[in-house]
Amino acid sequence: MSLLGKPQTITKRFHGTFEITKDNIISLFEILNQRVYQQNEAKLIQFRATIYYDDNSTVTLNGFDHLVHYNETLPIVSKAIHLTWQYLIKFRDKATFEKQEINVSFLTEMDGKVSLDEDIEIYPHNNQVYIRIQQTARIWGADIEGILSKHLKTIVWNNSKLFEFFQYNPERVRNAISGLLALITLGFAIYYTNLKSGKLPQKQYGLFVDEKFINLNCKL
Asked: Fewest C-beta in 10 Å: which of 72, 100, 145, 211?
């Protein structure tokens, strides 16, 4: 049995808005597993889910059944989940089984470099889905990437360019708003000062009587 082959890597990222539930993960697992088994002789040798929480703790679940029955009881919020599938697959044009690995990561509010696995480190944006497929058969890997991408597009909504600008440039947005408020405040201050000093032209209020304009601004 060969576990090596000639490994290649396919990666892809999605940016957008999503809310991932346990049912979403179960659905993703079933779709991927069904595709792998219907194409070739295969065996799932490991499935692992690592959940990252907002208190900097992590929980690693080894096995699909552990994920299905897992319920967090503490008042903490998940910020990311990293899923790993490892298969032994005997492709139709190969004489031996070869190891394939698929990683799917859902990232929300992550700061700095994130180590998702022993050999996976990325600098994520907020609200990102990251796919990595390590495979020894390019056509198979491309097919798996297509299946994953098609499914993920149903649960990840693309944000508008304006929304992404506000989301990924909060400091620039704050500076722009502060500058705009400062200009508005300065404008009102100048207007009020000129108004008090009598530098602003006053409007002439009056009425016409027998085609003659009577100025109502004059003192009687």
From this structure: 211
- Residue 34 backbone phi and psi in degrees, to 5: -65, -40
Determine the residue type at 74: L
Quickly tell me which residue has 């200009």 as its tokens.
183
- Residue-wise over 67-97: b if at least 16 C-beta within 10 A, else e? beeeeeeeeeeebbbbbbbbbbbbbeeeeeb
Query: Which of the given ranges, 4-13, 17-26, 96-105, has the highest pLDDT on average?
Result: 96-105
Residue 90: what residue type? K
- Global pTM reads 0.68
Q: Tell me which residue of 44, 28, 84 sits closest to 61, measured CA to CA.
A: 84
Q: Return the H-helix or E-strand segment holding 28.
A: helix 22-39
**Residue 72 phi, psi dihedral angles, 5° rounding:** -80, 130
Task: Assess whether pLDDT exceeds 50 at residue 220.
Answer: no
Give me the DSSP letters along 142-181: HHHHHHHHHHHTTT-BPPPHHHHHHHH-HHHHHHHHHHHH
Q: Are residues 156 and 181 in the same domain?
A: no
Examine the domain organization and report whether 148 and 177 are in the same domain.
no
**Does residue 1 lie within any of the structural domains?**
no
Cβ atoms of 10 and 104 closer than 8 Å: no
With bands split at pLDDT 50, 70 and 90, how would you rate the model's confidence at 129? Answer: very high
